[in-house]
Amino acid sequence: VQLQASGGGLVQAGGSLRLSCAASGRTFSSYAVGWFRQAPGKEREFVARISWSGSMTYYADSVKGRFTISRDNAKKMVYLQMNSLKPEDTAVYYCAAALSSWANPDYWGQGTQVTVSS
Description:
By secondary structure, the chain is mainly β. 0% of the residues lie in helices and 52% in strands. The chain has strands at residues 2-6, 9-12, 17-24, 32-38, 45-50, 57-59, 67-72, 77-82, 91-98, 107-108, 112-117. Strands 2, 4, 5, 6, 9, 10 and 11 form a seven-stranded mixed beta sheet that branches. A four-stranded antiparallel beta sheet has the order 1-3-8-7, with no helix packed on it.
């Protein structure tokens, strides 16, 4: 499985962005997919994840109610809709895929920069 994240950019506080994670590989639909982010000088942190079927989603407390993760297995795409963005959401966002454990995801995509201005 190969992953490619896109959709980042510069947005004002309160605005919205939608990130996309495009996957290749026949077994993509077997993987749970998650979004992580890393701000300058900080550790990479979990943002959201979605089960292989899309029936279960999980969010970090810091984004709950503002971000929505979804997936389209037919298109091999995972999305992160980000609303009510805050300057503290500024980071490089990565998508990752895991078959069984999020302690060490199996695949990572390259990051996409999200910058929220105040």
